[in-house]
Structures are given as structure tokens and as C-alpha cells.
Fold each of these.
Amino acid sequence: MRTVAVVGASLAGLSAARSLRKRGYDGRLVLVGEEPHRPYDRPPLSKEFLAGAIGEAELALERDDEDLQAEWVLGTRATGLDRTERAIRLADGREIRADGVVIATGAAARTLPGTEGLAGVHVLRTLDDARALRDGLALGGRLVVIGGGFVGAEVAATAYALGLDVTVVEAAPTPLAGPLGPAMGGIVSALHTDHGVRLLCGVGVKGLGGERRVDAVLLEDGRTLPADIVVVGVGARPCVDWLEGSGVALDNGVKCGADGRTTLAGVVAVGDCANWYDPHTGAHRRVEHWTGALERPDSAVATLLAGGAVEPGVPRPPYFWSDQYGVRIQFAGHAAGADDVTVEEGSTGDRSFLAVYRRAGRPVAVLGMNQPRLFTRWRKQLTSAATAS
Amino acid sequence: MMIPACRLADLPRGEAHRLDIEPPVSVFHTDDGELFAIDDTCTHQDASLADGWLEGCEVECPLHASKFDLRTGAVDAPPAKLPVRTHEVVVEDGMIYVRLSAQAPNLPPCISARLAGGPA
């Protein structure tokens, strides 16, 4: 293999590039990024960066002394993958021929249709989004966050600490019920109300008010929430449009095996755009977690370099964290499928506890609030159980 | 400076013992029976590596998955970018001692600010 192109220059793309070099690949390595920035860390965008506690230099993912001997093609997006020519087509007209391709194009924030061009309406996914939102929050006033997921909750917590008047609107009856289940979703999202942030659940958003600048959020039950600034945190969709017609099978992102392989030889997919096969559940699953973007590229790269002839290792159960209102929330495993959740240590009232999710008596997930040591122990136990099964 | 940490018999393999000095230092007893001492605070954000995931000669920060090599202090995985200091470990009469490194520590931005008297 003489040229490998990594399409996507965020954590998953960088991890793939690092893994290629670590595994001894010494050919030409090209990294393509739609954003003009070198790889940067996204979790702080809704927290420390948004609060102004850290700057852009601290977001950089590369170390100062790091040199991957790569060609960086930044500020242009991939528009197509030509399987006969084995080439990546770029928006600026260039073409990169490659023997191996790592698809790492991530996911883009969903927006509310019909709100384009309305000032004061934000999403938060990229550094540029975060810069704009930070400037918007600096003006103060009333913030309405649409969506009570983790990004929305972190933005609400940060904005509250900055002194804004904050309301969170969530269409589902309980926020975070998807990732955490209804009981724990309710306990974690109660952090909002503990801190004087309004949380409206079970009501959808009909639209936004305002001519050139947003001035209100209109709810489906007829209520109107006055707003100076609005953040739309309603999830993300995988960025795979550019692969239409390429021969790479798409289904909620790039459909790939447990080792990242796609339906095209010499092409693997990693990160938020990859819908990996999960041998534990026998189904495909697209996981938008930082740790997945860090850890999974190594098995995909091993597959790529070996021409597909490797047994995929067993991945660790999915892990993510969230910091809100000074509380550290950690979760590992799969809440879906659990039939029982028990608080094993601490108490939910103190916001310091550890809860274990079980299915037929066996632990399948663990949630910790301000319990990093216990959480690590349980996470290890969960991993050994997953590896043994 | 030699600092007594704990008795070797009180630190099982796979466990860590934190010394509450400023900045804190932790002694790790690996599954293979080796002892290492490093700065306890992750260089990315305030978290105790003694609470982390010990595997082989590597410890993973309990919060954000940064990994440090216990032998060299080198950071093996982001988001941390700077290494932790390593310290010499001496065992005498069943007691573990740590000889502190003379180097300056790499502390996360929030801790450095606090030690400098600024806002935490």
C-alpha cells in the first residue's frame, strides 16, 4: 500500500493516522479536512472553551513534538469516492488517488428547518460554532436550549454559570432516557432544576419567532418562550452524502463490520459516521462517543493494512462522560435492554452515587455521578464480562 | 527527598496508593509485581490517576481516557499532551519509599492557576 487517504481530520481521523504510523505504515499519508483547523478536541467546546476558561491552543489534539509525516489537505471537503479510479474527489477540484481509504467524516449538527439565516440561533459541533456561540452568550439575556441531550445540558450548565437566564425544552417526557434509561435520565436531568434552570419536557417546538433575529421559541402547546439566543441541540446526522453511488453501503452512516471494514475492499470507516456491527447485540450501532473515535480506528487500520485478514478484537463497552453544574457524569455500557437499575453506592439526592444496570441479573451498564474511582472499578468489571462472553 | 508511602504488603497488585502531598504523587503496583511512582494528577484536567484504569505499565485517566506510561511518564493518548513526572521507588524493610523528582510538574491549567494563587 503506497498511499492512504484519511478523509476527516478530527479525533477519529487523527487516531487512524497515528495508528497507521504506529503499525509501521511508512507510505504516503494524506489527511483531508473540511474545516481549516488542525485536529482539535470537541468535548471542551460546550464547557471550558464556551466558558472562556481555556483557549484554542488548549484544544489542539496533536502534541508539539508530533510529526506524522502526513500531507494535510484542510479547508476543503470530499465530494466523492471513485472506486474504479480509487480516488477521492475534493470540492476544490483536486483528486487524491489512494490504495487505502479511511472514512472519518463524522456527523453534522441537525438544525431546525426554516430557521436558516435567523441571527441568534446556534448549533454546537465545530470550533467555529463554539466561537459564535461564545460571542452570543457574552451578550447575556435569555437562552432557550432546544433538546435536553448531553450537548444541550452542558451548554445550559455553562450558560447558567455565565449568568444567563436558561430554559431547556425537551420533546421527550424525560431527557436522556435514550442513553441512560428513564429513571436515571430523570435523575441526571434534574440537575437543571436544582440549579434554577427551567426544564420543560414532553413538549415539541413548533418554530422560532423573530424577523432577522430570533426573539422567541414557539411551543406546540401554544406557549411562547421569549429568547435572546437559542441553541438547537437535537442530535447529529452522519456526513456520508459524498459517498452516494460510491459502492460503499450506507445505512445510518457507513455500514461496516466489527473491524470497520466497509463493502469496498481497501476502505474502512471510523468515528461518528461509522455504523459498526456490534457482535454483542448482533446489530449495527452508530456510537457518537469520543472514546469510540479514539479507540476504534486502531482495529480498522489493522484491517486495512492486513487486507481484511485480521480477527477484530473485542472493543471495550462504549464509554462517555459529561460535566454539568460541576458534577461529573460517567457512563459505560448499554442501557437499552437493561431490566433493572440499582443504586449500589451513595445516594441520588447527594449527586454522588454509582448505579448498575442489569439484564437478567448480569451487569450491562454503569452510571456514576462524582464517583470516578468506583466507576473505573465497575467499568473494568463490565469490560471483563463483555470480553469473556 | 525520600517519602514513606505505605507498606508493600498493604498495596496489592493492580492497586495504587496516593500520597497527599502537593502536588499529589501515586505509587502503582502493577499486575506483574512492578512498582512505579508518578504524579497523580492528569496533565489534562484535575483527576486522580490513582482512581484510573491500570493495565500493564499504563494508567488511563478515570475521566477522559488520557493514558500515561508508568515507566516514562509519557502520554500515550489524548486529550492530555504533556507527560507526568516519574519518581524513583525504593523498598526497604517492606516499606515503600518515593524519591521525588526535582523536575517541575506538568499540572493541568486549573491546578496551576490555583497554586499560583489565581482563581481555581
Amino acid sequence: MKESKALDPREEVERDVLAVLCRPGVKWLAAVALCAALVLLGLGLWGYQIHRGLGVSGLMHPVNWGVYITNFVFWVGIAHSGTLISAVLFLFRARFRTSFNRAAEAMTIFALTVAGLFPLIHLGRVWIFYYLFPYPTERHLWVNFRSPLIWDVFAVSTYMIVSLIFFYVGLLPDLAIARRRFSGIRKKIFAVLSLGWVGSLDQWRHYNRLYLFLAAFATPLVASVHSIVSWDFAVSIVPGWHTTIFAPYFVAGAIFSGTAMVITLVYPMQRILKLEKYITVDHFEAIAKILLFTSLIISYSYLVETGFAFYGDNVFEAEQFRYRSFGHYAHLYWVMIFCNSLLPLTLFIRRLRRSLPFLFAVSLLVNVGMWMERFVIIVNSLARDYDPYAWGTYTPSLVEIGITVMSFALFFLLYLLFLKAVPVLSMTEIKEHL
Amino acid sequence: MESLKLRPAVFYLLLLSAVGGIALAEYGGSGGGKGSLLVTLVFWSCLAQGAVAVVAITDLVRARWVASLKRELLSLYPLQFLVFLLFLLWTPRLSLYPWSAEPGLWLNEPFFVGRNLALLLLSSLLAALFARLSLRGDRRANLLAVLYLLVFVASQSLVAFDWVMTLEYPWYSTLFGAFFCVEAIYAGFALAGVASYLLRRQRCDADPETARKGLRDVGNLLFGFSVLWAGLFFAQYLLLWYGNLPEEVHYILRRTGSTSALALSGLFLAGNFVLPFAVFLSRKGKRLPAVVGGVSLVVLGGLFVERVVYVFPVLSLHAGVLFVENVLIIFVGMAAFYGRKTLLPRGGEGD
Amino acid sequence: MAETLVFLEKEDFLARLRELKKDGYSRRNLALYLPWHLPEVEEILEVSPGPLRYFAFFGGLCGFVGGMGFILYTVLSWPLITGGKPLISIPPFLLVSYILTILFGSLATFVGFLFLARLPSIQGIGGAEEYGNRFVIVIEEGLRPWNP
């Protein structure tokens, strides 16, 4: 009996996963320091922009939405695959989610944090951002519920709250394990965080239902959030924006980019933290298939959109799509086509799908491609709408580029802190499926 | 009636005579009702292609949800051949489309007929081949599933864009094709629901636990698809409503303007969304085969009414012709379903 | 005096639980501690799914009705036409009420869970007995079924 206990695979899971929470090494500290410095730099640039006004960005008539809104859409999109992996795959009873769900859920929250900053950065007078919320004022004015920007406020903040609950609920039993295996001040912290979870039948019984219901709520939510983001564009009557396929197309794009980001984050994590036993090539292959599938949906949307630009007599639509592919920003368009539509086709080949370095490289390029996609959609349509007299081009300024770099640094900083704060894999679920 | 001993030759003779009957009903001089064949065609292409698509998807993700109904769903693949023949019957009526007066690069009769016939033929061939390989447990079935799904998406998109949407030329909606693909898969799951009602005895005797789980899974999937359907419907409606452009709003006004149009539109909304959503929200709704089967039938009915709503503001319909055509096809479908023992190859998992 | 049975393997635990159930024990005389959720336990002890779904349902309903009601109140309290849309524009209002349905549904479910699972528990935080990866049945002495 004693021997079997020493080799107990369940104990081994706990030991391996909690080993990640050890005292941080020099490399980790260096990475954190670098990210923190970049974040500080970005905050400085933001301060400069608040002080001098939005003129320091490249935004100018007719392009009043530029890199900031691109970043907003990009980061909201990144958030989506976290919920997909944790909620949708849970409902479909896909086992492989177990190796990704914690990292992906954390990613959702961090991506939303970063995304939520951009509408604020984009505001000229950020200190009155609370005008966006419906609250009783002495002017008796309410927000305009017919405006997609207000839908955004509701959708993104609801998404943040629900994701936080989902993340925390998923953590609960693991926090109790951490409480048992640590001592001293860390034990006390984990004890409080775990709310005194003991794993009694009643707790598990309600917990199980809670998780199911949260997954069932999160699934339609995730689809609606990016649909609403897409309607920021699609409800307006701008060529290239006003098209009905935008909602499902954006949702697929969000999952596509988010899945790529999961690979980008989890592959180094698996390597550096030596978690090969728990995150296997099979798991990556399953994720790669999601990447391929969503890439096909996006390519379908590109095809349909471009086809219909030339279907009727709408010269404005036709001109917009001609401009996208051959105009001022054409190189970005072709980068987008290569990264989002052509490159993922290689994943049809089983050997490439199972080669992790290749998959990692694809995921990096997909991130680039999806950022380009948002830029192409936003800037091209604004630069060339109906009236040639009002056409213009846009180039991001150094401030905008610096703040974009800051957003990536902030995202990675939060992720690095997460690695050392809570168990990075769901120990309970891994043990359950042993 | 448990099963029917039907030789393939007899079955295909039956299928051809049904096509003949439909041709007679359509062109036999009933006068009005030029759109009946289009409604029938669009509806059955949705069911026939959707049933096989559902099996292809579940094969690819190795899901067990509908695995036990695989044979039953695959037995409907010959209907795709029927749809192919019906499309041939529809070609003389192409002059009814508003674009036929001024053909363009994409919308001209030879290309229209050519691309659609090619895709329908390819789809039915791939479906037949896939059914064979998949039932035999062949490893190449996965490759065929991918190919079939690609053709399925292309074909259903063209059903939407070419057959239905061009009735309203130059109005267009880019979502239409994807919407039809989702509806076809929805129809496939609804067929699975109907099949699980028809086979309730047999399955319950074999293994009550699996039968219960299978029923619940079908209910859950129908619930999910009812929400997805509503979401896509709303996505299209909202943009047309919000844009408020004359050429776009016109499309909605023609389908909600009169009392009868409004009633029909409400009917398919209720059938495709409200009823399945409300029934399958509760756990009890997913327990009884009769409830699952009944709601599945309502969903199929909703999809049918939706097709009527697409067509009738543009082309006139004749209720009698519509009825005869669909009964004939249901008859062929029943023959395929109950004759599956002799029509389909023997499966690896026994029958 | 409570009797504590500790098992390392799930199968042994479930077998013993079935025996206990046969002997007339029910959920009321037994306290179980599990390292993860076992649906089999609920089947053996015939436990009902519990009232959490009502929290989800009524939370969602309140979110929808409350959200729609609030939006209607705001547009009627200061009737201002914007964007050439009618004052009561149902499609966009449905959207926000739908989001609020999910928000309040999730919050209510979470709060309901905390209430039903008796969390946070001071006793648990203070350091109750921990069984780790073992499956545990605790039989309270005073609560043994009456067996003549």
C-alpha cells in the first residue's frame, strides 16, 4: 500500500504542476522586467497623448479610426478562443481541452484587460469615460441604446465579468489542492482564495452544475461579443463594412486568432516548464485542426465578400475591394491573405500539423495576419468612402506604435505573472482523466 | 413496418417515377404556381445534403452523438440524386429570374446551369462514395468526409446565392450562403430526431441507456442549433433594419408587409427557434422520443415554411402542386429509409 | 463517534458505497469527500440535481426583463430621436437585454452556488481535515439507520 502511494500518479500531477510555482529564476525576472519597462514606456506615451491631445497620433480626417481600434478588435478577438476552449469544448466533451483551458482562460482575461484600454486610449478626454455608462445625471440624459458603441460597453464588460467568474470557478478545487501542499503564508492565501473548499459531495454536486451552466452562458456570449464588435462597423453604411456576413466572419476570425495565440503561449510554456507529459502533440494537433477549420471559414468569407462586391451595380463596393487589393495598403492585404488563408492550408498535412516548431511558426504568422486583417478592414474603408474629394491616407505615428508595443508587453507581463501565481494546468481535471 | 426488402434497381425505378410524377404535376397544365418546384427543390436539397453532412461532421470529430443513427441518416443520400434531377426539371423556368433579361458574367443561363449541375452531381457522387466507405469503416472515409463537406458548403452556398437570392436581384446579403449551410446541418439533426422516434422501440430494446443518452444529445444539439439559427437570422435582420437602405429594406417589407406574409414569417420563426428553444431548455423535453421527434418535425416544417417565404413574394405558388411534389419525395425518402437494409452496404458494426 | 472509511481507488469506494446504500444508508447519514466529481455517486445515492438551475433561469429572466424595462424607461423618460430610428427600436434593445440576460444569469448562478455549497466556509479556511486524493465516507454514529 505504501509503495503504491509513493508512485501515485495523482500525487505526481500535483507535484509537477505546482512545481511551476517555485521561486522565480533569473530568466523569468528578466522577462518581467523587460515587459514592465515597455509597459511603463507605453503609459508614458499615453500620458503624453493625454497632455498634448490626439493630434500626436496619426488620426486625421477621413481616417479617424486607426491603430487603436485595430488593437481593440485584435485583442477582443484574442480573448475569444479562451472561452471557446474552456466552455464550448466542455459542452462538446472534448477531452483535450484539459491541457489548455487554464492558460486559455487566463489569456481571455488578460486580452480583455488590454482590449478594454484601447477605447479609453482612443478617447480624447479619457477622464470622462464614465459617460458611456447609463447612470442618472442632473441633465436627465441617458446613453443611446441604439448605438453599437454602447452595445460594446455592455458586451465587453459582461464578457470580462463572466470570464472572471469562469476562470475563478475553474480554479476553486485546484486552489484547495495548493492550500494542502503549501505551507506558511502561501497556505493562508490559498486557503482564503479557495473559500474553504473541502470537496464534499454537496459542493461537488452544485459545482458540477455551476460549471455546466456557466459554460452554457459563456458559449452564446462569446459569439455575441464579437458579433457586436463586428456591428460597430457593419451597421454603418460604409463600403466594405456594411455586409451581413460580418458577424459570423468576425467570430470565426476571433477564434482563429485566439487559437493561434494559445499555441504561441502554450508551446513555450510546455517547453520551458517541462509539461510535455500533460500537453502532448495530440493535444496540439487537435488545436491545429481548430485553426485550420476557422481559417477555412475566414477564407470563405473573403471569397464571398469579394465576390459580392462585383455582383450588383454597386460601384462603391467594387472600388473598395479593388482599392484593398491594389491600393495604398495592398501589401498589408496580401500579407493577410497569405497568413490567414494560404499558410494554414499546410495544416491539412498531418506531419506538419504534428510538428510543434512549425505550428508555433504558423501561429506567430497568423497573429500577424489577423492584426493586418483588422487594419485592412478599418483603414481602407475609411480612407476611401463615397466622395473622392474626402479621400485620404493614414500612417500611424510613433506614439501609436509605442502604445501598440505596450499592449503586447502588458499582455505578456500579465501572463508571466499568472504563471507564478496559480496552477497553470487544471490538476483536478487531469487527475479525473488519468 | 420494420424494414423493406428493396432491390436498388426497384428503388431507383421508384425514384425516377417520382421525378416523372413531379414533372407531370409541375408542367401538366395546372396553370399558376410557377415557384412550387423551386420551393421543393431548395427544401429537399437542404435535407438531402444536410443529412450526409451531419454524418461527415460527426465522423470527422469522432463524436458519438449521432453515431448510432449513422445508417439511418446515410440512407437518405440517394435523395441528392433526386435533387439533381429536379434541378434539371427547373432549368426551363430560369427565365423567371429578374437577371435573365440582362445576363452578366456570373448570372447567365449556361454558367448558372453548368456550375449548379456540376456541384449537385459531385455532391451526390461524393455522398454515395462516402456512405459506402464510412459504413464499411474504411480509413479513407475521413478524406471523403472533408471533400464532401467542401462540396457541400459550395453547393448549399450556391443554392442560397443562385437559386433563392437572385430572385431579388440586385439585392444581396453575404450571409445567405453560410445561413443555408447552417440550416442544412440543422435539418440533418432534425432528421436524426425524427429517426430516433421511428426507431425508439428497436433502440430501447437493444440498450436503453445508450438510447436515452442519444436522445438527450439530439435534443441538446437541436437546442444549440435553434440558438445558432436565431443568431444568424438576427445578424442579417439587424443589419437590414439598421442600414435602412431602400433596396435592402424592400426585401423585408415584401415578407412582412401583408398579413399572410407576416403570419408565415412568424410561423417559421416559431418553428425554427421559439419551439425547439423552449422545449429543449428543460431536461424533461429531451427524455421522450415522441417529444424529440415531434419538435424535429416542427423544425423541418419551419424550414419548409421559410423557403415558402423566400419564394412567394416573387413567384406564385400552387398549394396542390406543392403538396403532391413533396408527398412524392417523402415517399421516396421513406423507401430509402426503410429499405436501408438492402440498399446500403453491410456495416462493420452490424445491423 | 464517527466512522471514517478511506479509499485510494474509485472502484473500491463505489463498491462500498453501493453496499452501504443497500444497508439502508442514504445521503443524510453519510458525508462524502471526493477529489473530483463522480457522477456515479449521485446515481447510487439517488441525489436530485438540486435547485441551481432555478438560479440560472430566474437570474437570466430578471436580466432580460430588467434590462428591457430599463432601456424602455430611459428612452421614454427623455424622448430623443437619434439616427432616424423609432424611439422604441426593438432589434437593438434585444441585443443589450440579451447581454444582460447572460450577465445576470451567470452572476445569479454563481451566487446560488456559493449559497448552496455553503461557501465561503470559515471552517474550511481555518483548516478542516484534508483527505487529498482519497475517497472518503464518514458515517456519523448517531445517524446510523435503524436496523432491527
